[in-house]
Amino acid sequence: MREMTYVQALNEALREELIRDESVFIAGEDVGLYGGNLGVTRGLFQEFGQKRVKDTPISEAAIVGLGVGAAATGLRPCVEIMYVDFVGCCMEQILNQTSKLRYMFGGKIKLPLVIRTQGGAGFSAAAHHSQSLEAFFTHIPGLKVVMPSTPYDAKGLLKASIRDDNPVIFIEHKFLTDFKGPVPEDDYTIPLAEAELKRQGENATIITWSYMVHVALKAAERLAGEGIEVEVIDLRTLKPLDEKTVLGSVEKTGKVVILHEACRTSGFGAEVAAIIGDKAFDYLDGPIKRVTAPDTPVPFSPVLERFFMPDEEDVIRAIHETLG
Amino acid sequence: MAVQIEKGKHLDMYRTMTRIRGFEANVERLFAEGKIPGFVHLYLGEEAVATGVCAALREDDYINSTHRGHGHCVAKGGRLKEMFAEIYGKRTGYCKGKGGSMHIAAVEKGILGANGIVGGGLTLANGAAFSAQYRGTDQVAVCFFGDGATNNATFHEGINLAALWNLPVIFVCENNQFGMSVPQKNHQKIVDISIRAQAYGIPGITLDGNDVVKIYETALEAVNRARGDGGPTLIECKTYRHKGHFQGDPDTYRDKKEIKKWITERDPIQKYREFLLQSQIVSEKHLEAIDKEVEEEIIEAIRFAEESPLPAAEETLEDVYVEL
Question: CATH topology for A3-182?
Answer without folding.
Answer: Rossmann fold (3.40.50)
